[in-house]
């Protein structure tokens, strides 16, 4: 699987986190092209964020500085690949 090295996925996020909130936090690491939030099926109190930076260096910086950080009281993971299946289940518990 090839990954877009200018995109990072942020998970888990509480429903209190908005695209504007995520853009403000992740914007500290570089210019952002887009931010999307997706509800996690079967888990209404968690969501996944996708942040697309204008360049891969900014995405790497966000991953380096924010992975295992905290947003809205939840310890987050920042990855280049979208967490799915068992990996996703481990993150949202």
UniProtKB/TrEMBL annotation:
UniProt xrefs under InterPro entries: Nucleotide-bd_a/b_plait_sf (IPR012677), RBD_domain_sf (IPR035979), RRM_dom (IPR000504)
State whether keyword Isomerase applies: no
| GO MF annotations, alphabetized | RNA binding
Q: Which UniProt keywords apply?
A: RNA-binding
Q: Name one GO biological process term.
A: mRNA splicing, via spliceosome
Q: Does the keyword Kinase apply?
A: no
What sequence ranges are listed for the domain RRM?
A: 6-83
UniProt GO cellular component terms: ASAP complex; cytoplasm; nucleoplasm
Q: Which Gene3D superfamilies match?
A: 3.30.70.330
What the entry lists under SUPFAM superfamilies is as follows:
RNA-binding domain, RBD
Which protein is depicted? RRM domain-containing protein
Origin species: Babesia bovis
User: What taxonomic ancestry is recorded?
Assistant: Eukaryota, Sar, Alveolata, Apicomplexa, Aconoidasida
């Amino acid at each position: 699987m090839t990954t877009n090295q200018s995109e990072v996925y942020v998970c888990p996020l509480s429903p209190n986190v908005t695209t504007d909130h995520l853009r403000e936090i992740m914007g500290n690491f570089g210019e952002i092209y887009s931010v999307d939030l997706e509800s996690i099926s079967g888990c209404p109190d968690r969501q996944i964020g996708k942040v697309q930076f204008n360049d891969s260096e900014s995405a790497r910086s966000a991953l380096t500085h924010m992975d295992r950080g905290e947003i809205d009281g939840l310890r987050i993971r920042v990855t280049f690949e979208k967490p799915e299946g068992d990996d996703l289940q481990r993150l949202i518990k």
